[in-house]
Amino acid sequence: xxxxxxxxxxxxxxxxxxxxxxxxxxxxxxxxxxxxxxxxxxxxxxxxxxxxxxxxxxxxxxxxxxxxxxxxxxxxxxxxxxxxxxxxxxxxxxxxxxxxxxxxxxxxxxxxxxxxxxxxxxxxxxxxxxxxxxxxxxxxxxxxxxxxxxxxxxxxxxxxxxxxxxxxxxxxxxxxxxxxxxxxxxxxxxxxxxxxxxxxxxxxxxxxxxxxxxxxxxxxxxxxxxxxxxxxxxxxxxxxxxxxxxxxxxxxxxxxxxxxxxxxxxxxxxxxxxxxxxxxxxxxxxxxxxxxxxxxxxxxxxxxxxxxxxxxxxxxxxxxxxxxxxxxxxxxxxxxxxxxxxxxxxxxxxxxxxxxxxxxxxxxxxxxxxxxxxxxxxxxxxxxxxxxxxxxxxxxxxxxxxxxxxxxxxxxxxxxxxxxxxxxxxxxxxxxxxxxxxxxxxxxxxxxxxxxxxxxxxxxxxxxxxxxxxxxxxxxxxxxxxxxxxxxxxxxxxxxxxxxxxxxxxxxxx
Length: 510
Ligand SMILES: O=P(O)(O)OC[C@H]1O[C@H](OP(=O)(O)OP(=O)(O)O)[C@H](O)[C@@H]1O
Ligand SMILES: NC(=O)CC[C@H](N)C(=O)O
Ligand SMILES: [Mg+2]
Known about the structure:
By secondary structure, the protein is of the alpha+beta class. It folds into two domains: about 5-255, 4-Layer Sandwich (Glutamine Phosphoribosylpyrophosphate, subunit 1, domain 1); about 275-470, Rossmann fold (3-Layer(aba) Sandwich), CATH 3.40.50.2020. It is about 30% helix and about 20% strand. The protein has 17 helices and 21 strands. A seven-stranded antiparallel beta sheet has the order 3-2-4-1-10-9-11. A six-stranded antiparallel beta sheet has the order 5-6-7-8-12-13. Strand 5 (about 90-95) and strand 6 form a beta hairpin. The chain is globular. It starts with a strand and ends in an 11-residue tail after the last helix. Residues about 495-500 have low confidence and may be disordered. 1-O-pyrophosphono-5-O-phosphono-alpha-D-ribofuranose binds near residues 310, 339, 373 and 377. Its cofactor is Mg(2+). Keywords: Glutamine amidotransferase, Glycosyltransferase, Magnesium, Metal-binding, Purine biosynthesis, Transferase.
């Protein structure tokens, strides 16, 4: 679930890279594996800095100062397809036609046929296993069809029409055409989020931003903003002091189904996506969860409610309020360890849970504890947490999840492993409780979770991860191919990164 960002400044003499760098920090929670910035300067020249690592490590002051230009895009990567190699860090670039850069959040589910199409029909070489590189080349191939000396907005919208026709999956993208424009577009189901905003400068000119979450827009004073609609695109001219952004509903909206998992885990609580406040959905999740818990546990069965930091805090606090039980920070979080779930391999994930969370014995000793988390996915966190609670002397450990049992792959931009690695795969609730070692597991129902998130205008969500039914469907052989590539990457005895990491644009100092 990557983070994407694009900014065009009215003042063409002002470098955009420092603001992109700062904005990336607001999106770090969406991808910790790789980070990249590309800018476009005078004479359409493109500058780029990208590679594996967190934004603060990749974007050193020295590198950022070399990124010239007033228009640029940024990407924070959490790998879904392909591998976590340096060479798959985004944005991606192709020189023809015109020079195009793309940063993609999401995942395509017809890559098998797209690869064949690239190879057999348009003869474009794809240098990595990344679906985002494929997507960029599909766009470039569509744009090339016009065979024009200079491109205009209509050509770009028409090329996007081709993209919408050819690709299937979840995608929100920001891109740049060298010397011409910044652009953004969103898939026809609005699975992945993308917002557009503007900021009025002192002299009355306007800067523009595209971002995955509203929190970046607000923090950077882009106070007038809105979500792009599913199937909608926007083109912001490079010289945005002189020209206005142009919006177009490129294809009709299919059905608006934001990914429910954004509200459960991915997005920051202070973001509002598609008009829905993430924070308030999480409060409601706490209320509903408590109502559910009251049905299955007696009033004296819980002494204390303990959240699993960080994401579950909002929900757990509200749950404790409704239950009328004390809320206690039973696990102290090491602020220097990032999100565990989006780490690229299981070994790192297991070791970081213990490094990240440490129990406060006094909150567990001799108590019946209700631990609340936002979700149980592979069970990496919950197994360790339950163990720590028991080691610390809890007499009973109940584990409540604000999301229903996760039994299916997430195919639109979350690397939810293959089904068999999900702790709830083919298991009843009792079996999950046994697997993570607790006395009882209580899941939120899907119906209740949807109730917590829906509004008057959006009452349907992408919920394939809970049901196995995906809004776009999946092409034959796709999941099989995904598992094959994953197994191939994991079978590598050494670190996969060193094996496949010889990208085209490696800098000597990486
Ligand atoms: O069952 P699992 O595979 O362990 O995955 C679920 C856990 O992973 C996430 O936490 P994470 O540490 O990634 O981030 P957070 O600090 O935002 O909660 C999520 O909030 C759950 O705690
Ligand atoms: N999480 C994402 O949005 C990932 C984007 C893209 N599929 C990649 O693997 O790089
Ligand atoms: Mg967590």
